[in-house]
Design brief:
Blueprint: H1 5-10, H2 24-29, H3 44-56, H4 62-71, H5 73-79, H6 90-98, H7 102-134, H8 141-154, E1 168-177, E2 191-198, E3 203-210, H9 216-225, E4 232-236, H10 243-251, E5 255-260, H11 265-274, E6 286-294, E7 297-306, H12 310-313, E8 322-332, E9 335-345, H13 354-363, H14 366-376, H15 391-408, H16 414-423, H17 425-433
Parallel strand pairs: 1-4, 4-5
Antiparallel strand pairs: 1-2, 2-3, 5-9, 6-7, 7-8, 8-9
Length: 440
């Protein structure tokens, strides 16, 4: 096994299973490899690292990964452990993909980035505590609290606003891998994946394969049953708007936010009838509004939210706390269009303000904007024609890992960063071999 100074600094000694991985390379070493021992020249962890490295440098297919690694063989062999001469061919990556579990890769990466975000938050809390303790205080704490209480009673300063208790917003959604679809020699439908995305921290928590789009709701129910949701808000599109889905989210300790569409016509009629009249003191409600101007369009979002239907809907929809109407007025190139949609949530009004609910509705689409769109466009997932075995799901899991790394390290422009990695592959390799805390 060859080593250089970079590898020695990484300290790739044997670790106990209970020790948490400190780098993405160590995460890949934990992936199970079901290949037979005979003829296995490269470990699954090494092959996964090479695929991820090549993807960071712009490659999209197994064949492209193999050619890229061959062109950069010298510098890669100096940094990574190879037990034999030569580098893997495209069939080696294909064989490894068929004998490992893409869901395991996704879950290990999700756990890793969850731990990294926790470490970052703890470090930030320590820094804030040190800054507060070093700040000079002109009045004693008890006197200061007394002054604030007197000012609140006099109406000079408002009382503290209630804080929305869900610390994280998770989103569940399915995605079609269009590149896996085939027409010849025999028609073959595209493969589908179901992802659970942390929209607050911007990383994929886990992802699993589903037989097809018609199986998405059943797969989501199974995924919820095995996922703790305490202190978290889970949102989904109208496909999952069903009482069973809401109950399972509540059983896991979470809260739900859903949109009502044509698949629940009675629910849509009830909510639309409530908001058909203008706001009145007889039917109290709250509202919020945002105005955004970007990408050549002006978008106004107006939210009306009420708790008047709670008792009426509770026999069918468990723990419903608020229903809402959201109106989107979009002006683009002098033309204005209006969209109205309805939804409901288990978040109570005392803890979730209208502004918070409006923000949560928009945050739901981060799985499309920050994950699905960038996988298709920036990473070329739709153009990856891999259709055999588990390769499409494995490549999707590694794409999610790259995006999570990019968001954790706050890469401003992903295509520009890929071009930089293409020019300097050792830079991309350093992000895989070293603990992410060294780059923060």
């Amino acid at each position: 096994m060859e080593k250089n100074e970079l590898l020695s600094r990484v300290k790739l000694e044997q670790r106990d299973k209970e020790v948490k991985p400190q780098s993405l390379y160590e995460v890949m070493q934990k992936v199970s490899d079901k290949r037979k021992r005979r003829g296995k020249r490269y470990s699954a962890g090494l092959l996964l690292t090479l695929i991820l490295l090549a993807k960071m440098c712009g490659e999209r297919t197994a064949k492209g990964v193999a050619k890229w690694v061959r062109l950069h063989e010298k510098e890669i062999r100096e940094a990574l452990p190879f037990y034999r001469p030569g580098v893997p061919c495209a069939n080696t990556y294909q064989s490894m993909s068929d004998h490992c579990n893409p869901r395991e890769v996704s879950e290990l990466a999700g756990q890793f980035f969850a731990e990294q975000h926790q470490l970052r938050e703890k470090a930030a809390q320590v820094e804030r505590g040190a800054a507060e303790s070093s700040a000079t205080v002109t009045t004693t704490p008890s006197a200061q609290r007394g002054n604030e209480q007197k000012e609140q009673e006099a109406g000079k300063i408002p009382p503290p606003a209630p804080v929305a208790f869900p610390q994280e917003h998770w989103v569940i959604d399915g995605k079609s891998q269009r590149g896996s679809r085939r027409q010849r020699p025999q028609p073959k439908a595209a493969q589908y994946t179901l992802g659970l995305y942390n929209a607050t921290r911007d990383y994929m928590i886990r992802q699993c394969e589903i037989p097809g789009k018609g199986h998405e709701r059943r797969a989501a129910l199974s995924l919820i049953e095995t996922t703790p949701l305490h202190n978290r808000l889970l949102s989904a599109d109208a496909l999952h708007t069903h009482p069973d889905w809401c109950q399972r989210v509540l059983n896991q300790g979470g809260h739900y936010l859903l949109i009502a569409k044509a698949n629940q016509p009675d629910l849509v009629d009830d909510i639309s009838f409530l908001f058909s009249a203008k706001p009145s003191p007889l039917f109290p409600e709250a509202s919020a509004q945002t105005v955004d101007k970007a990408h050549g369009r002006l978008e106004i979002r107006r939210l009306r939210i009420s708790s008047l239907l709670n008792e009426y809907l509770s026999p069918t929809w468990p723990m419903v706390a608020q229903v809402f109407q959201i109106t989107r007025i979009i002006t683009r190139k002098g033309k204005t269009s209006t969209e109205i949609s309805y939804g409901f949530t288990s978040l109570p009004a005392l803890s979730a303000s209208p502004s918070y609910v409006l923000h949560a509705i928009r945050t739901h689409w981060r799985i499309e904007n920050r994950s699905h769109w960038r996988r298709d466009v920036s990473l070329g997932e739709d153009k990856c024609l891999a259709a055999h075995g588990k390769t499409p799901q494995l490549f999707a899991a590694l794409n999610n890992t790259f995006l999570a790394l990019a968001d954790f390290l706050h890469f401003k422009n992903l295509p520009d960063k890929i071009r930089e990695f293409q020019a300097h592959p050792p830079l991309a390799l350093s992000f895989l071999l070293h603990p992410l805390s060294t780059f923060v």
